[in-house]
Amino acid sequence: xxxxxxxxxxxxxxxxxxxxFNVLIWRLPRSESIIAPGSHCPACGxxxxxxxxxxxxxxxxxxxxxxxxxxxxxxRYPAVELLTAALCLLLWQTYVSPYAAIPHRAADHITFxxxxxxxxxxxxVAFIDLEHFIIxxxxxxxxxxxxxxxxxxPGPLTPLQMLLGTAAGGxxxxxxxxxxxxxxxxxxxxxxxxxxxxxxxxxxxxxxxxLLAIVFGSVLGACATLPLLAAGRLPADRRIPFGPFxxxxxxxxxxxxxxxxxxxxxFTGRLLF
Length: 273
Description:
This protein is mainly alpha-helical. The chain has nine helices and no strands. It has helices spanning 2-27, 57-61, 76-96, 110-132, 137-150, 159-184, 192-205, 207-230, 243-272.
């Protein structure tokens, strides 16, 4: 009973966070305040009443349309809310529940909370980059500053390790971008937002997790884009947002990085010996 209660609380928290993330996804790329005005229909400007703003449920009750002008509501809204709820549940089962797969040794330390927050904020980052091809500095730069400050408090990362993580995350992508510009003769082969994002994540998670996130993100990106390239269905400008793949790669590195590394060395060891 108690476990079911905490699962319900976790899902409800995820749905509420997802609703807030939808605000960030819509307003940050447009340089709008996330505080005022209140929630409103982007088509007609009508103020959304509280009972029309219940995560997922309101979308279903309204038939996916504005209660005023009947303009279609994007599928993104319930998708983000459900995804956030599912990932919050995954984090609870991985780190917090009595059967946690990764029992954390510093649950009372601020770094643990910041790391969880950094994973969750990747949800709006991924959707913003997917739609607008940008990663807002208003997310990455404060995140980097917080990561730097956190390293001066007792915890898993010292200032030196924070610097190594920042260099591994941001520096690796910067080097890959420079290499891409040289090989493909293309300006800004790697976006500055991606570099700042990985610098921020490296500062909080350390160099190993940052490098693993880039590796996993690159593999996922290749798996998604190579079939499109082979089918000739890439956009005319061949711009592919890397942020969603880096976000997914960071989640994999944070939750399953150690298992993936062990499995890799076990597999290669059997092949070699």
